[in-house]
Amino acid sequence: MPFCKCYYHVIWGTEKREPLITAMVEPIVFEVIRRKSAALHSPILAINGIEDHIHVAVSIAPSVAVAEWIRSVKGLSTYEVNNQFLDAESRFRWQKSYGVLSYGEKHLPLVIRYIEHQKQHHADQTLQPYLERVDE
Description:
A four-stranded antiparallel β-sheet has the order 2-3-1-4, sandwiched between helices. It has a single domain, classed as 2-Layer Sandwich (Alpha-Beta Plaits), CATH 3.30.70. It starts with 6 loop residues before the first strand and ends in a 12-residue tail after the last helix. By secondary structure, the chain is an alpha+beta fold. Helices cover about 35% and strands about 20% of the residues.
């Protein structure tokens, strides 16, 4: 395998930004994303979010296109959540758009810290707008 250090901060939300990532749903979504990402040889460095969107810091393998990684983790997490909550009032869905930022190893601690404190950033309104974008 070639030497590669490519880091990404990926952000995406639930369909229509509905508050679907509940306390029961969040651990499922995070575990599925971690599992699928590991299968794609793309280690998760941090993952967190709030009720309507998530942030992921990931080092995507050079053999996997960024869009393919996103499609895979969004698809499997949707499937798993809906499979575990068959009687839910509405189906769990992600929005089609997403945001991706690349960054160097030097900024890795900053991005990880930002993601780990997502809930607090939203509560305190200390968001970094460029780290929250999912579309133009």
